[in-house]
Amino acid sequence: MVNMAPPDEPIPLALPPSPPGAEAPFVVRTGDGADDAACGRIMATSALASSYARRLPHAALLLADDSPLCLAGRSRMVGEVAGKVVGFADYRPWDGHIKYLFVHPRAQARGVGAALVDAVQNAVGGRVGVHVLAVNDSALLWYLRRSFRIVDGWEEPFADVPAVWIRLVRERLPDERP
Fold first, then answer.
1. Strand, helix or coil at 3?
2. pTM
């Protein structure tokens, strides 16, 4: 069984390379069905702690759903610290679409999300894309700072209420040359 840090336990995080004696190293690995429960809890915890949750009160039940998140034909990259899942990215390997990218709130702003997106892009060997709710301005800015660009937008329901979605893509890893 995969462990997730309990809500009151601090998450140690030191991104590689870690100096001797540093906190447990951060590891990205290929995920599988054994990670479903941890990923479901991280998704709910992250969504409820987000700035966009307040803007979507109609979606509170959906955002709070912490049931196991099945892969449903997607692939997964998981970020771990000391054997505990702290973030994940579910994606479609055939077209590079990232369906879910969630990092536990206490592990955010430490490079976990960027490492997961880079691992997905390395796995698919090319372009990656993501759809983000327009009300999730912090996520939009996060992706733009990581070399994604806005391609288009559209209106589609989220939790049975019309919502605007933005599609972003990144052609290559930020340090790759064309």
1. strand
2. 0.84
Query: Where are the domains positioned within the chain?
Result: 26-170
Q: What does the pLDDT look like over 79-138, one tens digit per residue?
A: 999 889 999 999 999 999 999 999 999 999 899 999 999 999 999 999 999 999 999 999
CATH number listed for the domain at residues 26-170? 3.40.630.30
Cβ(134)–Cβ(153) below 8 Å: yes
Greatest CA separation for the chain: 51
Confidence of residue 5 (pLDDT cuts 50, 70, 90): very low
Cβ pair 135, 52 in contact under 8 A: yes
**CA Rg value for the chain:** 16
Q: Which residues pair with 132 in a beta bridge?
A: 166
pLDDT tens for residues 25-44? 889 999 999 999 999 999 99
Distance CA 111, CA 132 (A): 19
What is the secondary structure of 34-82 as a DSSP string? GGHHHHHHHHHHHHHHSSSGGG-GGGHHHHH--S----TT-EEEEEEET
Write out the DSSP string of 154-175.
EEEEETTEEEEEEEEEESS-TT
pLDDT(156) > 80? yes
